[in-house]
Every structure is written in structure tokens, then in C-alpha cells.
Amino acid sequence: MNQYPDLNTSPRILLGPGPSMVHPRVLRAMAHPLVGHLDPQFVQLMTEVQELLRYVFETENKITFPVSGTGSAGMDAAVCNFVEPGMPVLACVNGYFGGRLCEMASRYGADLTRLDRAWGTVFEPKEIDDALKSKPAKLVMIVMAETSTGALQPLEEIAKIVHNHGALLLVDCVTSLGGMPVKIDETGIDIAYSGTQKCLGVPPGLAPLTVNGRAVEALHVRKTPVPSWYFDITAVEHYWGPERTYHHTAPISMNYALREGLRMVQEEGLEARFKRHHENAELFWNGLKDLGLEPVVEIAYRLPSLTTIKVPEGVDAAQVCSRLLNEYNIEIAGGLGAFKGKIWRVGLMGYSSSRENVVLLLAALDRILNH
Questions:
Q1: How many structural domains is the chain composed of?
Q2: CATH code, domain with 68
Q3: 29: Cβ–Cβ under 8 A, 6 or more apart, which residues?
Q4: Structure confidence by residue, pLDDT tens digits, 44-66
């Protein structure tokens, strides 16, 4: 007799900061028979995944592909390829994941300048301009959608300033891609990465990455080799490029899932998808007001994909999360770092972003907090 029984995992209503819920179509795609990672059928799928990623990123970048790993792998790939020992780097930190960018850049030997902002707020372009005047940098790193705070960072003016100073702009799009406009080309973002498990509605395991021509030029004139063999874009690009030169065994089933998730994004259309995310977020925000709960971020800079809520005085944040999970089968999350125990994080991303989920969560919160 097997001492390990069959899995009997209860399906959850995933309304935390990720992963989000996955549509049955995506799950079915993962059950397709395996083929080899250089099989002509998979090679064709790779091309389609790249085309669909360019559509969602809103870019024409040739180097656009999913890194084999989670969103943090995408972050690591972006940083290790474009940071060299002694390189002056400006990191803009207004949350937990800005801090993680700093840690990675430091490990790769950056001459790091850290520009801090209060959690839940966003950077003004002038702050970054002043920082670059004070100490020039070759790379500026910033989070577009800070998962720890729910703040959406405007980037258009910042991108212009960064380029005026001759630097590259590296952007974290983990909680924005597929849920709101990213506009890589129009904004002027040089390097961007994301994750599959948020607004794209695909299981965790791949990290979409896109790099423009300006950044590719900088990559090809590095004075030192990229310190990570696995994440070295100069090698991986030949696997995802027309040569399809073997580099590593790609996660076949995850790429099936990503293709199907991206097909669903395209079928819905970017504008319609962005509208759905924003309308459901507004419905949730209005419902919070009725419950006497207050979002952390002011509405002008509030993410439609992830809302942070101030925990009322005298309420145990972790206990509310536990009751939601155990009594209502709903997952939300507490705060990280400076916000630990002070906020809840609610994600309305991808397949999870629906009116019925909003109404269900509001009703459950009302019962737990007020009854």
C-alpha cells in the first residue's frame, strides 16, 4: 500500500498577489502530449509564443521570449545581463521588490545608488532626474507595478529622463503585463520582465522578458561575461532565435499553457481586457468604502490588478486571511516587509478578475469584520 495518498487538493478562489486562478483551457493545454524541445511542432509553438508576447508587451523587440523560471528568474536574468562589476546603477525603491532588485544588482557588483520613496507612493520624474545629475548611471531600475504596495508607477517622463542621461531603463512588469497597458515601445522601456502567474492567468513557471535594440547593443559590448550561464541572453537568444540552437530543455508543458493563456488575451483584446480589470477593481474599491475599509494607495496611482487595504485598528490581519481561506475558500495575502501585519493584498488578475469574485470577497469580508 502506498503511504502517500492521492492528492485531493481543494480548488481555491485565488485573490491574493499571485498566483491567480487559471482558466480550464489553460489547464487542458498543459495536458497535451510531450514533444522534444527541438521537435518541429515545439519550434513552431515557440514562434507563436514570441509573437503573442510581443502583442501583450506592445513591442516589436526581436528578443522577446519566456525565461524558463518564475518571475524572480526573469528579474535575475534582466539584472545579471545588464549589470557589470563597478557599473553605476540607480535603483528606485518604493516597495519590497525594488529592494530585491537592489540585492541582485549588488550581488553582481554594481556601484549602486539607492533612491528610496515611502511604500505606497510613486516617484516623481524630477527625483530621478536629480539623482542622475548628482551621480550618473548606466542603468536605472524601477518597478512599474509594485506587488508589495499596490502602487502603479507612471513611466513615460521617467523613460525620457533616463535616456537623456544616456542610461538604460529596466522595468519590473510582473503585476502589470496583461492587466494594464505596458507599451514597451511607446514608453521607451529598454528591458522588461514579467511572470506568467499574475494577469496572464497562467501557472507560475515562466518569466516573459523583452529587450530592445539599444539594450542588445550594450549587452554585446560587455567587458565581462554574463555571470549566469543559464540566464545569459547572448546564448539563450540563439535558442529562441531562428537558429533554434540547443541551450536547455525548455519546460514544454508550461509553454503550452503560456501559448493558450496568451491566445485568450488576444481573443479578448488588450483594450477589453484592461477595461475588465479596471472596472472590477473600481467595483471592489467602492465596496471597500461601503465596508469602511481604506486602500493604501491614492486612486490616481492605484493598481487595478492589486489592491492594498489598511487593516483596521484592533483587527488581526493574519486571522482574517486564515478565516477567509478556511471558511470561504478564498485566498488573499498580508503585507510584506514594512507593511507586514498592517495591510491586506487583494489581487484581481487575469481569470480571477471577475464581478462574481469581487462580490463574494466583499460579502465574506463583511461577515468576518462586521458580523
A1: 2
A2: 3.40.640.10
A3: 256, 257, 259, 260
A4: 999 999 999 999 999 999 999 99
Select from 266, 287, 310 the last residue of a domain.
266
Question: What pTM does this model have?
Answer: 0.96
**What whole-number distance in Å separates Cα of residue 62 and Cα of residue 49?**
13
Q: Are residues 88 and 174 in the same domain?
A: yes
| Cβ contact 309:343 at 8 Å | yes
* Within-domain flag for 79: yes
Q: Quick one: pLDDT at residue 235?
A: 92
Instruction: Annotate 56-104 with DSSP letters as a single string.
Output: HHT---SEEEEEES-HHHHHHHHHHHH--TT-EEEEEESSHHHHHHHHH
Question: What are the helix (H) ranges across 188-242?
Answer: 213-220, 233-240
Cβ burial of 225 (10 Å; 0-12, 13-18, 19+) is exposed
Pair (197, 279) in one structural domain: no
Upstream peptide bond of 11 is cis (omega within 30 degrees of 0): no
**Angle, to 10 degrees, between the axis of helix 270-290 and the axis of helix 355-370?**
20
Over residues 118-174, the pLDDT tens digits come to 999 999 999 999 999 999 999 999 999 999 999 999 999 999 999 999 999 999 999
68 contacts 250 by C-beta, under 8 angstroms: yes
Expressed as residue numbers, the domain containing 280 is: 13-18+270-370
* φ, ψ of residue 69 in degrees (nearest 5): 160, 175
For the chain, which ranges sit under pLDDT 70? Answer: 1
